[in-house]
Design a protein that fits this description.
This protein is of the alpha+beta class. The protein has two domains: 60 residues; 85 residues, PH-domain like. It is built from three helices and seven strands; from the N terminus they run H-H-E-E-E-E-E-E-E-H. The protein is elongated and about 85 Å long.
Length: 150
């Protein structure tokens, strides 16, 4: 929802800038905005809005978590590896155990369950999955249990 709100604000930027440039602001005689100035400014504002929109789009779509028997890795908004963690460094996986569930409900969307992978040191990894269709958390829990089992 926040992504689409951001996209709407960015899309409205060129229209708002065009309205400001063409509005009836008081200017000295002979100094009215000329098409030679207004059109390139509008094109530049539109190009900036499109650039910002695609930057925001990429930051939402390219982030990922990959699970392996040895650990997991996460990618940044640029698609590069941002964190590599071995299962031995994971302290616990919260939210998967029965009775310890936090759900989030957004109007018009299915309920999501919040999970948190805690580490012995460093930041935790937080993510959500659709309630009743969890795949990442159960697999992470199984891989972690298998890796730390004596």
């Amino acid at each position: 929802m926040l992504y689409w709100l951001y996209g709407t604000i960015v899309a409205m930027f060129p229209i708002g800038s065009l309205l400001v440039m063409l509005s009836g602001q008081k200017s000295p005689p002979g100094r009215e905005p000329q098409a030679v100035v207004v059109i390139p400014a509008f094109i530049a504002a539109t190009a900036l809005a499109v650039f910002l929109f695609y930057c925001g789009y990429g930051s939402v779509r390219k982030r990922a978590v990959y699970l392996y028997p040895q650990g997991y890795l996460t990618t940044s908004s640029l698609g590069r590896v941002s964190r590599l963690v071995r299962w031995e460094e994971v302290k616990s996986i919260g939210g998967y155990q029965p009775g310890v569930v936090t759900t989030v409900q957004v109007i018009g969307q299915p309920a999501r369950v919040m999970y948190r992978i805690r580490h012995h040191r460093g930041r935790s990894l937080k993510f959500t999955e659709i309630a009743g269709r969890e795949q990442l958390a159960p697999l992470a829990y199984q891989l972690h249990a298998a890796a730390v089992a004596p």
